[in-house]
């Protein structure tokens, strides 16, 4: 269960990074 929680938190961080990257790309495309 601990390992699963560790993987879940890692996936959460990855999802947050992906979301911010998509937001940055959207803003960049909007400004271009």
List keywords for this structure.
IS5/IS1182 family transposase; mainly alpha; 32 residues
Structural class: mainly alpha
Shape call? rod-shaped
End-to-end span in angstroms? 46 Å
Number of domains: 1
Average pLDDT across residues?
A: 90
Strand content: under 5%
Put simply, the count of helices is 1
Binned, the helix content reads over 70%
- What's the alpha carbon Rg, rounded to whole Å? 14 Å
Report the order of strands and helices.
H
Query: Main beta sheet: strand number and arrangement?
Result: none
Uncertain stretches of 5 or more adjacent residues? none
The count of strands amounts to 0
Layout of secondary structure:
Layout lengths: L1 H30 L1
Structural notes for this entry:
The protein has one domain (1-32). The protein has one helix at residues 2-31. The protein starts with a helix and ends with a helix. Helices cover 94% and strands 0% of the residues. The chain is mainly α. The model has no long low-confidence stretch (mean pLDDT 90). It comes from Marinimicrococcus flavescens. This is IS5/IS1182 family transposase.
In short:
With 32 residues, the protein is mainly alpha-helical.
